Nitrate ABC transporter substrate-binding protein (Corticibacter populi), 302 residues
Amino acid sequence: MLNWTPTADHAPLYYAKAQGWYEQAGINLSIEAGRGSAASAQRVGAGGAQVGIADLPTAMQARSKGADLKAVMVIYANSPQGFYWRKSAGIGSPRDFVGRKIGNPPGDAARLMWPAFAKKVGIDPSSVTFVNLSPQAKVAALKSKSVDIISDFYNEHDMKVRDFGDDLGFVAWRDVGVNVYGNSLVVNGAYLDAKPEVVHQFTATTQRAYEVCVKDFEPCLKALTDAASGLNPDNLRDQWGRIKQLMRDDTTTQVALGAFSPERVKADYDLVQSLIGLDKPLDPATLFTNEYLDTSVRMPAD
């Protein structure tokens, strides 16, 4: 289960499926569109899907509520989250968000993580109003002034620059000190216990696909657009350029593409626990594993 509808960051999955790699690994894979990280984490945690993509802090929150899942590969080593606004609305920085309307989907990771962002920039988390929007409606809502701010992934940054030009305001969460791990592959815990070799095959195959797409995106782009209609290839190419930046950190370049740093997971856990809260405390080391990754596969340093 994806975190959202298919887009550039999911292209490696479609490429590996089109190449028959999952089938060769003994996996009959179906790919379902998602409705946000919270929905994906809940679905995987309940066993409704064996594997999904979810923002890691959202998966932490789901685990604290009883969801049975574990992360096996990180896609975004850096947070993709950002806020966008029109400068002409009188917003110069996040401190001007007070009293404003933020448009985003109800299952969006940005909404769940909002208290952490708000406290980092020094405003009351309750000082804004959230407006429910579908992912496809965000830009239109900002243009029509029905909302003042939208949350979105950095992937789509180039499209917004074209739409808003010099009137575009933007802040990346990672630049204000909320650089938590983003989208990750999460696996149902009971399924992992019962079929560790299948999970190993799935993870290694997916890691290999991301490696191929980092080297040459065009075959992956074709696989994605063949499987999902209505996508703009030029926009997807722009997205992938941004995604590669988000995939790269010291761990993914020096340990393995998709590997988690235990220290960073612990820091993310501490941030979520202190600024947002968790229903039940967890051992951060139990939230993830790197054991199914091929350490010979590394993210390029540039």
User: Anything to note?
Assistant: The first helix runs from residue 11 to 18. Residues 8-77+181-287 form a domain with the D-Maltodextrin-Binding Protein; domain 2 fold (CATH 3.40.190.10).
